[in-house]
Amino acid sequence: MNLKERGQKKPQNTYSETIEFDDNVLAAILFGQNNLHLAIIESRLDVSLASRGNKLLVEGRKANCKQAIIILKKLYARGEGGQSLSKADVDAAIRMENGSNKSDSKNNSKNSSNSYIVTRRKSLSARTPTQEGYINALHEKELVFGVGPAGTGKTYLAVAMGCAMLEAGKVERIILSRPAVEAGEKLGFLPGDMKEKVDPYLRPLYDALYDMMDPAIVERLIEEAVIEIAPLAFMRGRTLSHSFIILDEAQNTTSMQMKMLLTRLGEDSRMVITGDPSQIDLPRGVKSGLVDSLNILANMPDITQIHFKEGDVIRHPLVAKIVKAYNQNDRAQNHD
Length: 336
Description:
The strands form 3 sheets. Strands 8-7-9-10-6-11 form a 6-stranded parallel beta sheet. A 3-stranded antiparallel beta sheet has the order 1-3-2. The chain has helices at residues 3-8, 24-31, 36-45, 62-80, 87-100, 129-140, 154-167, 194-212, 215-223, 255-262, 289-296, 317-335, and strands spanning 15-20, 47-52, 55-60, 116-118, 123-125, 143-147, 173-178, 227-231, 243-247, 270-275, 303-307. The radius of gyration is 23 Å and the shape is globular. It is an alpha/beta fold and 336 residues long. The longest helix has 19 residues, at 62-80.
């Protein structure tokens, strides 16, 4: 339906506003192929959008329309800044705007000036209010916990911040670690040298690094020990100074291992602990070091804990629904 027809059939008590964009090409990118981006906004915000050229008629409840207009203008500004625009970007803009209207959001930082990470190869901005709080914490705090389901960007953003701080000369090295729980005490029986034995458990960390830096540079920095990727057991007895340290899959640490790593933090260093307490692979009866530390350190003002939910999952939309279904099933079983 075109703009004129939509205007003539406006129901009673329906707010409408027409906005105009200066650049026809950018407006077309904003609207999306076959108006796909507009359809997403219509569905999520319960508004009607009708385009004609570089003009857009917005109809619906006034609050919804005002929110849609704010989102549309922010997305258009992305195009003006030369940034790409995808379905994921539209979804992220809606999430961010919805989150900014929830004054009781504990993870939402009052200062959004640090809600982005820039490396030489990639620039990342927050896609959810929780990510915004997380990125701010990564900028400001020496010890940050990022806890929640897969697909929320916990580890990816931590690696990005590590690369950004290394490139800026704020740290001298990056140390990435995971507990190789599946291998247990059987590493010695696996073929190859130690690197070949533990690499399968550390592959997600390599993947994130290659996104932030040229692979050849990553390999050189690994050879020079500027970037160190090692299982958690290798951290024992060390003092990690002038470093950006990331412990991934921390739910699979024991309480003793977690205490060991936390006490390795040295001068001018940052540490990020990420994990998902719902995915513990430790033997039955062994307490998770992540869960333990979250309770013990809960009231320390110098430490920030960011808790991601299924609504923060930024992978395929089906992933968020799968996470939610599993969480509901776990809660139902716990009540039985």
